[in-house]
Batch of 2 targets.
Target 1
Amino acid sequence: MLRQLNEHADAPTRHGLAAGAAAAPQRPDWTIDQGWDRYTAEEHAVWKTLFERQSKLLPGRACDAFVAGMRDLPIGPEQIPDFRALSEVLMQRNGWQVVAVPGLVPDDVFFEHLANRRFPAGHFIRKPHELDYLEEPDVFHDVFGHVPMLMNPAIADYIQAYGEGGLRAQKLGVLDKLARVYWYTVEFGLVQQADGLRIYGAGIASSYTETVFALDDASPNRIAFDLERVMRTHYRIDDFQESYFVIDDLDQLLELARIDFGPLYQRIEGQPEYQPGTLLPGDRVRTRGTGRYHAAKRAA
Ligand code: HBI
Ligand code: FE
């Protein structure tokens, strides 16, 4: 399965992974040594290319928390960051760590790490010919996209709650619903700051083309975040999102983390689901998209 333009693999493959797509892990929790000393000059150079490209684009586009997190972490253009140095700063800040994994890990393993405030990050970096095109989350997506946001207390608690909620949702057979919430927040979320609309989702922040599309393009819908609505909304796995959901501030995620999703799952069971580009009568629409980008693709 290929994920075009974003740095992420799609949910069906991710959910199917436990069935055995990857080689058997060395350790039961799937962690490996990052092997920082083994990165080659070429690999560091790919990081630098990606870092510099994104850093030019993100001022005025990434949210304040992202910028602050980046500033306070040992992440720079010259080298792929060392997870031990990242973890030292994160641990001091709010008890999170970054652990290395070979790529996608089974859902339950992923959730178990998050529930314990360990962020599993791919240790490998994409090849020079796949700067915008990648199957699995690599070190650039995971470290550049996710780790700065983990410095924020609301995101830190929210992602832990997602890990705990993921384990519950798996048992209830409703993981697809919860995964949509993660997708439309942690991966592709937008936040309304006083000085404008900003990116906080790692799938956007680590993608050059989607950064521009999500904020500046007339094509996608931008809709005020509503939990139940999002749980019922499919997402694009192979291309830019057709709709983005906008939160008022990051503390809204903390409120989300405190909600018991159990009754919600029951309420929406058997209810209709929505296609990614559909607008609903109840939506608080911030931007009604032209839909042009995806219409052109469908016509092609
Ligand atoms: N593994 N390394 C890694 N990164 C992810 O984002 C990830 C994963 N395994 C499963 C998974 N995500 C998801 O599909 C869950 O969030 C539902
Ligand atoms: Fe991600």
Target 2
Amino acid sequence: MLISKVEFRNGGKALAYTYDGALGSAILRPSNRHQTLADILFADDPVKLVESLSEPMATMVSLEDARTLAPIDQQEVWAAGVTYKRSQVARMEESETGASHYDRVYTAARPEIFFKATPHRVVGPGQPIRIRRDTNWSVPEPELALVISPRGKLVGYTIGNDMSARDIEGENPLYLPQAKVYSGCCGLGPAVLLATEPLDRAGTKISLEIVRAGGTVFTGATDVDQMARTFEDLIDWLFRDNTFPNGVFLLTGTGVVPPNEFTLAHGDVVNISISGIGTLTNTVIQS
Ligand code: DO4
Ligand code: MG
């Protein structure tokens, strides 16, 4: 079951769900206790709750007139890094001074985990995603994002784009927060897939397509099984000496990196698809 946030032309917002695509989408009736995405996602049994709040099939609402928003309310977004071999190799190539840090963290017990975004820095499907004004080498990072409850329970998955300025990070690893955290630096959406059963890691494909002036200039793909860490391990480290009263999103690292001569440009369209979740599409701006 997929849960999304939608906005109608008249500005009204609602939560919606989709069952396997086949049944179409339905709007969730808000109740006094269930208004936000967190109210649904962090409930004891989200599927049962959604079923109890959903309009009967006969009154299903068409979502054609609605636009999908990023599936986030008050949560912070964090990110894990160098969890795929491809990311380790790319980072070692780009780094002028810090290559061995990436090498070591790939195999260390403690993963790299960094703060990525607050909700106001996150863009949803169809919204412009930004490259920094002071970078000449930026890439999107297509990542599986975990949705985690305040108690540290994995409740769902969505698509994340961990936009990165490779020249800034490469100049000095201490510049990582500037390479990663800025206005419009993170894409999320289009929907949260509820984690009702363990994810089929080998069968979950993450693909990236970058389109420029109508033509594809890069495609790449990986599957979640290429990730060197388990979700449980990453969540365990994230929650050490940290609390997340509103829950948290955790991007799990990239396994797809365009070649070193490639940089995103203003006007590019980034499509990130993950099996079972959908496609997150954003146009890139640099302004
Ligand atoms: O080490 C820097 C960031 C790594 C990252 O974002 C990734 O591997 O996805
Ligand atoms: Mg990343």
